[in-house]
């Protein structure tokens, strides 16, 4: 189990100003503040005024299974996926909204498990896996499910839920299921399947897909997570509908729905992004194009510095792919750099002690300490500070 300080938000009361001091930069967490200057430039385009008499009811759409989902958000989500082409959102799919994809992950564990099972169902993910999965799974010591570690080592003849993150957090790899047994359950976490991070090769069409506002647009504070689930009129309907209802029940019991202010804000922002994607005159302000440029610039600079480390540090290579969204062959620019130190070195320790850079070490992700994860979603100032520190480190390696 990953200790609380290793969660994505390690100290809830921390403010951005304390993340970065002259001596230390904290790149251990994935707080997506790099998009802040972009949204500042957007000025009033996403401004909303909500008066005190609006949005008062618990209910958004009482005839919908997901009664707390506002129809504005439902439409905006479908439209953006349609424009980007990263997920199938036909009318026969329904959408459930949660307080961040973190709450939906819990809701899914609850919905995919059963109190009638003799043993808690095993939750697995191929290492390196997102460090919050073990913590979230084990947190309540549930009798419904248990964390069972690396999917590559799962050899028990038992029911399981495999979590597949693609592109993966922490290493940016494109992934599919590892354990392919009949009856196996799967959650596809597609938090990073957006054009600024990866090539959009096809519309994802899995049974359960998670997306999050946090990593799509950078608005992590609004806590809007999404889950898409096909809704087939077949025998599976009974089962699927039961799963969907159980998820809604979970969100009802844990938070009685999702803030309508957040939902409206998300609909407005997603709508502005979709407008810009569809208007060729607004090509330059297009959020994803901006995000791609930003991420690809950062990756280029980081690779240049890492290359000068005499082989002490290295980064994964990603194949180019044809991106249906941009219509070009493009590189992947993951949200995290999966940095590796040469054999025998603890990469997190090296970066902290030699460079004053806080990162999250490989053991949090189920692999060796030679790896560490560095957030690429930080502010420009933090990113430049990291480059400076790494360059100075290179200087010491080269005897300068
Ligand atoms: N899944 C993955 C793979 C993530 O990296 C994160 C955030 N770091 C989340 C889910 C959680 O996102 P949210 O802010 O929607 O809870």
Give the secondary structure arrangement, pairings included.
Blueprint lengths: L24 E2 L9 H6 L29 H14 L8 E7 H13 L8 E5 L6 H7 L6 E6 L9 E6 L19 E5 L19 E4 H5 L6 E7 L5 H20 L4 H19 L8 H21 L5 E2 L6 E3 L4 E3 L5 E6 L5 H9 L1 E2 L1 E2 L9 E5 L4 H18 L3
Parallel strand pairs: 1-13, 3-4, 3-5, 5-6, 6-7
Antiparallel strand pairs: 2-8, 7-8, 9-12, 10-11, 12-15, 14-15
Bound molecules: 4'-deoxy-4'-aminopyridoxal-5'-phosphate.
Question: What's the short version?
Answer:
This protein has 400 residues and is of the alpha/beta class.
Give a verbal description of the structure:
With 400 residues, the chain is of the alpha/beta class. It folds into 2 domains: 4-40 and 284-397, Aspartate Aminotransferase, domain 1 (Alpha-Beta Complex), CATH 3.90.1150.10; 57-273, Type I PLP-dependent aspartate aminotransferase-like (Major domain) (Aspartate Aminotransferase, domain 2, 3-Layer(aba) Sandwich). It contains 10 helices and 15 strands. It has helices at residues 36-41, 71-84, 100-112, 132-138, 213-217, 236-255, 260-278, 287-307, 347-355, 380-397; strands spanning 25-26, 93-99, 121-125, 145-150, 160-165, 185-189, 209-212, 224-230, 313-314, 321-323, 328-330, 336-341, 357-358, 360-361, 371-375. The strands form 4 sheets. A 7-stranded mixed beta sheet has the order 2-8-7-6-5-3-4. Strands 9-12-15-14 form a 4-stranded antiparallel beta sheet, covered by helices on one side. It has a two-stranded parallel ribbon with strand order 1-13. β3, α4 and β4 (145-150) form a beta-alpha-beta unit. It is globular, with a radius of gyration of 21 Å. The two termini are 42 Å apart. Residues 8, 30, 100-102, 130, 165, 169, 189, 191, 212, 214, 220, 225 line the site of 4'-deoxy-4'-aminopyridoxal-5'-phosphate.
